[in-house]
Write a structure and sequence with these properties.
The structure holds 2 protein chains of 2 kinds.
Chain A lengths: L14 H14 L3 H14 L4 H13 L3 H14 L4 H13 L3 H14 L4 H13 L3 H14 L4 H14 L2 H8 L25 E9 L4 H7 L3 H5 L2 E7 L5 H4 L8 E2 L10 E4 L3 H4 L18 H14 L5 E6 L9 H4 L7 H4 L4 E5 L7 H4 L6 E4 L7 H8 L4 E5 L2 H8 L4 E5 L20 E5 L6 H22 L9
Parallel strand pairs in A: 1-2, 1-4, 2-3, 5-6, 5-8, 6-7, 8-9, 9-10
Helix pairs in contact in A: 1-2, 1-3, 2-3, 3-4, 4-5, 5-6, 5-7, 6-7, 7-8, 7-9, 8-9, 9-10, 11-20, 15-19
Chain B lengths: L29 H4 L3 H12 L3 H14 L4 H13 L3 H14 L4 H13 L3 H14 L4 H13 L3 H15 L4 H13 L3 H14 L4 H13 L3 H14 L4 H13 L3 H11 L9 H13 L3 H19 L5 H14 L2 H4 L13 E6 L6 H8 L5 E2 L6 H12 L21 H15 L9 E4 L8 H7 L5 E5 L2 H9 L5 H4 L4 H21 L4 E5 H6 L1 H12 L41 H4 L3 H11 L19
Parallel strand pairs in B: 1-3, 1-4, 2-3, 4-5
Classes of the chains: A alpha/beta, B mainly alpha.
């Protein structure tokens, strides 16, 4: 969940106040350069104006200049140390910068100064979640909701706490608030048709909606057969990239990539709401693995290609070190290739990067010793990814769709999780009821990839050696 | 309008308007200037009588009136050449060729001049034209043979030398010696030796023959014999600078550094001004080994200045940048996803591409790998470059390389990469580089990484071994030797650094956008832990470890590159982080190289404020 982060100030009257109000309007309209120009104009008149400085901080943050935002906001706090709003906002900045302790202190100060501000409680809840202080996070959500009962962010945060603790019954209910979040706009069809309640549909189609990210779709697609058993006809709306995944479900009678192509339906349901309707609890998660399979012809082609690219005797590990940057927790869940140094240093292991998107560029800047093969540029779709996963010895990934895909295929996969993981990975355990072949590796401190990758590297070395010994390698490396 | 009296800056002696500023379209037809013929006869007669000044004045008058007269231009050209006015002579030769592309003599003269100053690409165009003009003329074949041999295409060069010999119908001492040199570059020492013997038997007074033979014996690791041959050369031309330079090189090889330095310094008692580019660079290298970095650097700088003056231009930055821009624009993941790849041709030895900026240790690595029974050394194969140059023609494309590769989308060129792959393999086979029983052969043409995209299309399963070395060491080393690779970047530190950064960025692009069988190896790791490095490389290639690779200095193969003498020594670490002794003069290139060095995991140790002092270990 993203932090509440807003100006929310009253600007009063007079020319300066009008300037500030106008700047605020521009900022909210995302006209950041114009807002900045007005704020700088205001600061020429009143160089020590804490709110102008603070708003400049907001503009800097939204322009991607986090360090500058932090500096400006700290200055506004120094100038006006009892303004709760400033602490509330800097709480989010500190979080973005990974300075969770400072964020918590600011959040606590915000709620002490403005105990009636629900946003201050919500922001503090997020920081507590990041620090895995779940009781505190839950209490903050409750306080925020007491002040503002229809507050989607607080509900969603509460859902995450409940689900992470394994309280699925209460958690699923709160989780439904996700569609009220601003970022969920456009995720569901604009329709008068009802959202499905799980009751059998005798006539008409049930439209599933592949909401959220690719990983979520892969994870929740296991419920497609369950939903199909409760309606006469099942179709799904999904982005075209998901076709190789969804076309494996014979229960689906249509896959549509555009809203205007979707045929008439009786009711719709987000894919990620199916666990709630199915009454899923951690002990009843349907895990009929594998439920996704690679196309044998593609597997054969990829086996041949991989044999060309990687000589015999190498333990083959598919990797992905980053997810989509747009994911709201990407700073915590994604790593950099450089942070995988310990893992990549493992001898006799070939690393097959199944990375897509901008993180691929990190391969060009990688000058380590690993036998690293970048397959991202050769992946046309998930069909290729599945074929490769079928051909490797192990998958190591951060919390991104590759892990889900490997898990759904029943392939051995090690998932590296941030200190405060997504709710679906529960707490403390090294396994997951969602994917029996998955092993979870959890950070022991926020954003501490070094310790985590060292642990994974040690296990990988043991794992690869064990395989090497069983398969009588042709050549061995010297120590 | 007033007459422009300015003399042309090329040194021809003509007015600018009658020389480099001349519009050839404005020339009068031959019959209109025919009445001037007596002037030409007068100039020729004066020259024959040894009255050069009068001949020059007359021919200048004639060319003022008829600037397009070939005979007059030829006469002035001969005068300027005799006066060692190379720039003016070249301008005049170019004008003759421009006026009459069928002028064999002028084309040959210009080709030779260009060859001598290292402008091989242009010289090759002219040489090929000569063969077209006169396929039975030995001079035509001789120029092409010279150019091809010098351009690292000795197999083509050998063919044309043999044509010369056949056309002459009798042995010629110089051609035999040139062919011997050609065979030496192919590592065919006994044949080369036999030809040198024949050459000196025909004419024992050709200095270059003795020098070439001495270098052959050096390459065959027989320094005692090499010294004897230098003694013979000394008799032919007492005190010749080229003899002393080579003697210095041999002394250096033997570790007699002071003696070597004395030999160089004896060439020009007046100081460095009397030394040529090669002598200065050798002097710098000797001073470097004698731990006299400041003097060494001064010698490098002086040598590079002279070499640049001789070539007439420096780094072709615009061309280099333009090619890289176009390569990056063409080789993108999106485009490549839909381009075909050549299939692996089973049952034939496959290339291993050793990539790296010149002076990164590629020769050393090739020497180590080719000590493996399954790996032959291909040396600097010009094949990828040739294929890149031929793509537009082969693919019948309206666009040059790399855009010509867009033809691969067309039905009739879907198999073209397989054909180009076969061309490469066939030419490699014909070069005779592949040993019996070898499954692999190396191609270590410097800067082949520029064409990494094309290589990966032609040989997607071939191992790509990329040597990296501390960028400052690479730049320094490239500055210390004569080098024309990389768009002539090696004349100045800044341009070497610029080209290094340009290519590093291009390689990063390829690695981000393409699936490659790529392994990076540090030169410093090879030096500090050769066994582990070789194990990694051999594992990447997919051949078992072989201890011979570690005893590479016993590999009798001759490496045809500037590093060949170094790779006949066991591993040494004197070249690791040598930049530390040169930080001050290298300071201008640090801003260019620091970001790359950092990405590579190297540090650049800063000098203390005084500019002196020891530096901490880096990497």
């Amino acid at each position: 969940m993203s932090a509440v982060f807003a100006d929310a100030g009253r600007h009063g009257e007079g020319p300066l106040a009008r300037l500030m109000a106008e700047a605020s309007t521009l900022e909210q309209a995302s006209r950041l350069q114009e807002a900045e120009a007005l704020l700088r104009q205001a600061l020429q008149v009143a160089p020590e104006h804490p709110h102008a400085i603070h708003m400049l901080g907001i503009v800097a943050f939204r322009s991607g200049n986090e360090e500058e935002a932090c500096r400006l906001m700290e200055r506004s706090i120094a100038l006006s140390p009892n303004t709760g709003l400033y602490y509330r906002n800097i709480c989010a900045i500190y979080r973005a910068l990974g300075r969770l302790e400072a964020g918590r202190a600011a959040g606590l100060r915000a709620v002490s100064l403005t105990p009636d501000d629900p946003h201050a409680h919500a922001n503090l809840a997020i920081i507590h979640y990041d620090l895995l202080e779940l009781d505190e996070a839950f209490a903050c959500c409750e306080r925020a909701l007491a002040l503002k009962p229809d507050y989607p962010e607080a509900h969603f945060e509460k859902a995450e706490v409940l689900l992470l603790r394994g309280d699925y019954e209460a958690g699923w209910e709160e989780y439904e608030w996700r569609f009220q979040l601003p970022q969920a706009a456009g995720m569901l069809p604009k329709t008068e048709k009802p959202q499905w309640d799980g009751a059998p549909i005798a006539e008409g189609k049930l439209l599933l909606v592949a909401d959220q990210g690719f990983g979520d779709v892969i994870q929740f697609s296991r419920y497609i057969p369950w939903a199909a058993g409760r309606c006469s006809e099942l179709v799904i709306a999904a982005s075209s990239e998901l076709k190789p995944i969804l076309s494996q479900f014979s229960e689906l009678q249509g896959i549509y990539h555009r809203w205007d192509e979707v045929p008439d339906y009786a009711a719709y349901c987000p894919l990620s709401s199916l666990p709630r309707l199915a009454g899923t609890r951690p002990e009843t998660i349907p895990a009929s693995i594998p439920y996704l399979r690679a196309d044998p012809a593609r597997v054969a082609a990829w086996v041949a290609r991989l044999n060309d690219l990687i000589p015999e005797g190498f333990f083959r590990v598919a990797i992905a070190w980053a997810g989509r940057a747009a994911h709201n927790n990407d700073r915590n869940r994604s790593s950099t290739l450089a942070q995988w140094q310990a893992i990549l240093a493992t001898d006799r292991v070939a690393f097959l990067a199944l990375q897509k998107g901008p993180p691929c560029q990190q391969i060009g800047a990688y000058y380590g010793d690993a036998a690293l093969v970048s397959l991202g540029p050769s992946l046309l779709d998930f069909g290729d990814t599945m074929a490769i996963l079928e051909s490797v010895d192990l998958v190591i990934s951060v919390d991104t769709s590759l892990g889900h895909l490997a898990g759904a295929m029943g392939r051995p996969v090690w998932l590296m999780l941030p200190f405060a993981p997504d709710w679906r990975w529960l707490l403390h355990r090294t396994d997951t009821p969602w994917y029996p072949t998955m092993r979870l590796y959890r950070q022991r401190a926020p954003r501490d990839w070094e310790e985590l990758t060292a642990r994974v590297a040690a296990d990988l070395l043991r794992h690869a050696r064990a395989k090497e010994e069983t398969e009588s390698p042709q050549w061995k490396m010297s120590a | 309008m007033a007459i422009d009296p300015r003399s042309c800056t090329c040194g021809s002696g003509l007015r600018y308007a009658r020389c480099c500023g001349l519009d050839l379209n404005s020339l009068s037809p031959p019959q209109a200037t025919e009445p001037l013929r007596p002037l030409l006869a007068e100039a020729s007669a004066a020259l024959q009588k040894g009255e050069a000044e009068r001949a020059e004045a007359t021919v200048l008058r004639l060319l003022e009136l008829a600037p397009g007269w070939e005979e007059a231009l030829a006469l002035l050209y001969s005068l300027r050449k005799r006066q060692n006015k190379a720039a003016a002579a070249e301008v005049l030769a170019r004008r003759m060729v421009a006026l009459n592309p069928n002028n064999f003599w002028a084309t040959n003269e210009l080709g030779l001049m260009l060859f001598q100053r290292g402008a091989l690409a242009e010289a090759e165009v002219l040489a090929r034209n000569l063969v077209r003009l006169a396929p039975r003329n030995p001079q035509a074949h001789n120029l092409l043979a010279l150019v091809l041999t010098e351009a690292n295409r000795p197999h083509g060069g050998e063919y044309h030398y043999r044509q010369v010999l056949a056309l002459l119908e009798k042995p010629d001492a110089v051609v035999l010696a040139n062919l011997a040199w050609n065979l030496k570059t192919q590592g065919r020492f006994p044949e080369a030796r036999e030809l040198y013997e024949q050459s000196v038997a025909l004419n024992p007074d050709v200095l270059q023959t003795w020098l070439g033979w001495a270098r052959l014996e050096d390459a065959d690791r027989n320094l005692a014999r090499a010294h004897e041959l230098l003694d013979r050369a000394e008799k032919v031309s007492p005190g010749a600078a080229s003899v002393r330079l080579l003697r210095a090189v041999f002394y250096g090889r033997e570790g007699k550094l002071e003696q070597a330095l004395a030999e160089i310094e004896s060439i020009a008692d007046a100081g460095d001004a009397g030394l040529g580019a090669n002598e200065l660079l050798e002097k710098g290298r000797l001073l470097d080994r004698l731990h006299r970095p400041q003097e060494a650097f001064a010698a490098f700088a002086a040598g590079k200045k002279k070499a640049r003056e001789a070539l007439g231009h420096g780094y072709l930055a615009e061309q280099a940048n333009e090619l890289v821009r176009r390569l990056k624009a063409f080789f993108t993941a999106e485009r490549l996803a839909h381009l075909p790849r050549a299939r692996r041709k089973d049952g034939e030895p496959q290339p291993i591409f050793i990539l790296g900026f010149p002076r990164s240790g590629t020769t050393l690595l090739e020497q180590m790998l080719s000590a493996h029974p399954e790996i032959s050394a291909g040396d600097e194969l010009p094949l990828i470059h040739d294929i890149a140059q031929s793509l537009q023609r082969v693919l019948n494309s309206p666009l040059p390389y790399p855009e010509a590769l867009a033809e691969l989308w067309m039905a009739d060129y879907r198999e073209a990469l397989d054909e180009l792959r076969d061309t490469y393999l066939k030419r490699a086979r014909e070069m005779g580089i592949i040993r019996e029983g070898a499954r692999w052969f190396t191609d270590k043409m410097p800067l082949n990484e520029t064409h990494l995209g094309l290589i990966a299309l032609l040989f997607p399963a071939s191992p790509l071994i990329h040597l990296v070395r501390h960028p400052l060491d690479v730049v320094l080393s490239a500055y210390s030797i004569h080098l024309t690779h990389g768009y002539f970047c090696a004349f100045e530190l800044e341009s070497i650094a610029q080209h290094y950064a340009l290519i590093a960025d291009l390689v990063a692009h390829y690695r981000s956008e393409m699936t490659l069988r790529y392994l990076q190896i540090r030169y410093e790791d090879i030096v500090s832990n050769p066994k582990r490095s070789i194990e990694r490389i051999l594992a990447h290639i997919g051949v078992p470890f072989h201890a011979n690779c570690l005893n590479f200095s016993e590999n009798r193969r001759y490496a045809r590159t500037p590093s060949y003498a170094q790779v006949t020594e066991p591993l040494y670490d004197r070249a690791v982080f040598r930049y530390r002794d040169y930080l001050e003069p290298l300071r201008p290139v640090i801003p260019i190289l620091a970001p790359i060095a950092q990405r590579m995991g190297y540090t650049i140790d800063e000098l203390p404020a005084s500019g002196a002092g020891k530096l901490k270990a880096s990497r």
